[in-house]
Amino acid sequence: MPLAQVTRRQFLKISAATSGALAAGLAVPGFDSWRTAAAAEAEEERIPTICEMCGVKCGVIAVVRGGRVVRLEGNPDHPLSRGRLCARGNAGMMSLYDPDRLREPLKRNPDGSFVPISWDQAIAEIGEKLKSIRERYGPEALVFAVHPELIAPWEKRFCDAFGTPNFSSHAPTCYSHRTAAYVATYGALPAVDYANVRYLISPGRNHLGGVKNNDLQKLAQAKAAGAKFVVLDPRYSEFAAWATEWLPIRPGTDGAFLLALMNVLVEEDLYDRDFVAARTAGFAELREAVKQYTPEWAAGVTDVPAETIRRVARELAAARPAAAVDPCWHGGLGSMYYNGFQAARAAACLNALLGNLGAKGGLVFPASVKLGSIDDLGPKPPKPAAPRFDGAGGPRWPLAKDLGMIHTLPEAIETGKPYPIKAAIISHFNPVRSCPDSRRWLQALRKLELVVVIDVQMSDTATAADYVLPESHYLERSDPVWVTGDTVALRRPAVAPLHNTLPEDEILRRLAEAVGIGEYFTFTLEEYNDALLRPLGLTTADLEKAGVVRVPVQPPNYDRLKTPSGKVELRSEAVARAGGSPVPAWEPPLVEPKEGEFRLLHGHVAVHTHTASQNNPYLHALMPENELWIHPDPAGRLGIRDGDLVEVASVTGSERLRAKVTAGIRPDCVWMAHGFGCLSRAQRRAYGKGANDSGLVPIRVAPISGAAAQCEVVVTVRKVGG
Fold first, then answer.
1. pTM of the model
2. Peptide bond between residue 632 and the one before it cis (omega within 30 degrees of 0)
3. CA-only gyration radius of the chain, Å
4. Total domains in the fold of the chain
5. What are the phi and psi torsion angles at 17 (to 5°)?
6. pLDDT digits (tens, 9 = 90+) for 533-543
7. Does 677 map to a domain?
8. How many whole angstroms separate alpha carbon 518 and alpha carbon 509?
């Protein structure tokens, strides 16, 4: 059928055929069947490894009996877990023993169904197709899209060896604005010394929703010591409820609030004069720029009273340098709003006015560990000659160089510009539901000659693939070494693979051979890790025994930053060259709801990770579907009561879910948790549960960073059932 005519009903029919190919999974034992008498009586083994239930990569201890994982614990020696795990980390073994797991390579039939094939057949056929595409269109016709995990250096090496510049991650849907703004201002991305912070402003980051284990433990430590947390969020999030103060700011106006704080600091002489004079560049221009952004002006923009803005600014200044504006992902500074780059720049410059860089409780750069080179393991692939398909790093998007704009792939496929894209390899990533406009993504992927998905489960994106390659679960495999702070750790297998799966290093090695670039992958994973560890006097075998090793580090250099001036650049020429205001400036959000409309917001919750965990038995039991948060006032006008089924509609589609009527959200907004509304029948618990926010969001490209601006969407809501 023509791609433009693929309907949701037809897609679900194809998805049903997919689940038929996996029907044998019904005979695969679930977790309870592993609880045999022999396992119960077996001696307990404790294996240190690394979690992959989210992107944080905490150190875990896998407790194994009789060859079966019986529980997971936080590794007390690893700095990211410190003996504790979140709900997702604890649930990792359930994804290992999930009967819905992918268990063997699959190939799509012409009718859309999938059939099992051997690894040899899959690799050979994919290799031939990739070679043909490279010969006919050039190597840049391949896009490799990932949610970057530990194997990312191998994926990037594969791209270089193949000759494509198009290695892309999920950055524009998460943190592009923040990262581009801080790199332009500080030369690198700092973090907050959460354990010692005394005053923290969080522009939309929900620490108790998008849980980062180590950060949350440190924030709890700071709160116990009397720290004050101020949360800017249109919704009464979990972190807002835990914080000292919640300011229900108008969506997309965080930048105005931060500019007004700078106005107060400068006009009332509350900033760190010594730091600004010695370690920043461009203060004179910034000072002139912020004069117009008074608290009274900001109050009209943000709905936060002027007296509140002044009080927060004075409290912030009183706590410096142990005071900070959180360099958030998501929220007002991440990738959610069209104006988020300038908001993130305002946050970066405001931090500089507090003189908190390198200070206890302020912004800190991580120490670095000097790893070895793999150059003696074989030839280094040449850098690809072609420009990226999305223009990242080019004249129009210079600050997006390392971030990319993967959400623009459908347009590139549809138009053939700047050149034809004909193949995609997608790993640890589900863009059909993680990127805006699910329908457009599905239609675009069907236009490609080759789509290969590497995953542990049949994701929505996998149902649109030509080949699905099952990766071994993180508890079944090793990966490249993981360095965080002064700690080096190793993911090592806790159990042997349960199914006919492979780790991705082996998948890439075999694909490289099939494509004719095998000379760049002549080493094993162990040899790769040994080469990296050599300057530290360690080997893979050492890490297998110890699990976690503390190593010497190089402290960060705060005196000479990686900016052209070597200082914090309050005025950035790099931003000016990219087409933005060189000093932080107010830019309004892109859309504004009219009477009877709402701005649609979405976010994360503590028990799920993106679209990856909704089929996990433990986590599904905790939260099987999402709800639409709506304020009582508009709900009353629309006749909506708590628990009613409602339809949310936007320019890209409509979704149905249950209403949560609550005063914990502004009347001009509605909110839903991201990651639900699974379209893959092969995920039998998650399928059809809740609503898919990505189906409501159009594809947009925000200025400077290229972020996806996913909260720049207006919707209508109506009741459709009780």
1. 0.93
2. no
3. 25
4. 2
5. -65, -35
6. 999 999 999 99
7. yes
8. 7
